[in-house]
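Justification of computing resources. Each target in the renewal requires a structure prediction run like the one illustrated here; the chain below, 415 residues long, is used simply to show the kind of job we budget for.
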Amino acid sequence: MHGGSSQIETFDPKMSAPAGIRSVTGEVQTKLPGVTFGGTFPNLAERANRLAIIRSFSFEGRGNHDLRPLVGGESLDANLGTVYSRVAGANRPGAGMPTNVMLFPRSVDPTAGPNQNSFGRFESTGPFGSAYAPVVPGTSSGGGSLHQDMRLTLSRDRMEDRWHLLEKLDGIKRQLDADGFEDYRRQAYETVIGGVAKAFDLSQEDRRVIDRYDTSRLCNPESVTLGPDGKQKGFYPRYVDHGKTLGKELLLARRLVEAGCGFVTVTTNFAWDMHADGNNPAVREGMNFSGPVFDHAVSVFLDDLRDRGLEDKVLLVATGEMGRTPKVDNNGGRNHWHHSAPLLLAGGGLQMGQVIGRTTKDGGKPATEPMTVERLHATILHTLLDVGQMRVTHSHLQDVIRIATAAEPISGLTS
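Resulting structure tokens:
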């Protein structure tokens, strides 16, 4: 939810608060007694018994357009998928799938805008090395010709012969290991041999499933095309990208995890910035455009996982890099806010159907123990890894262990 989604218009509507604080999109009753979501999330409200909403999530001191919690100081400035890959390996054993994949709108639509890295690099690997960087389909940096590159054009025997020859020649190049050169090339080889190009190819999917995920029909570009001066609004391309690609990105994410990928990040180019400053919409306009798209795409994704027996095997985490001010400004926008932010979790074998924590009456700060970025990281890594066993078998990976144990996982998610 890059751009900083509002905690109030998403999962903490505060309808008993005065106008100017309470959700400008109203509220919708969920399946959980006494719990409501923002008015643009009716489908997620119907699935609230399969979600965990963390209302006391807080960024504690930073409300900037950086890439937290995916990339930040808490993860040593490394993509969190990179941290996991450092333990699990760059490729999945047997499947050949890359462990870590980053999906931007161009991953599913070549006409989408450029990847948003203005506030930091989603693919940053920190101290862990380029061998553990996420694969980024659809871009020159991550492989604009990735699908072609992953197709095996040599016979398997000839490819095996070339690989064994390279291994013999590489005896004189061991000094390159420190830079991750060997691991990176091995990753490319295993990816090709594993035949994973099909997993990245949405044309392999049943047309009825593609249609079910499609979010393009939910956005109305004409509603945000022109500003009062008759010129196109600055945020227009970003919101159109969000509308036409989020569903397909989540479908691709499902295909990847089903094929064995270990960590997939999905972003839609800054679609949650709602300052009402000309370059960004007011909250009502922005939520009416982005909210239904998110509500539909995430709901279909969750149902698809359940139907395929993957619901408890995949942990979905939905959040942004900050929250929004409790009070709507004179232009109808909400500005940067670090004290409180939305966080949704689903699946992963954790305890769902609950709201954890609460905020003050205006939704501005946690009224219960804050759940920090460190605690979210601990929750994710403890779900993916046996951290106790890792201390024994991977004691040399002190940076990973430090990130996984910097705080306790979020309370109440495990039995």
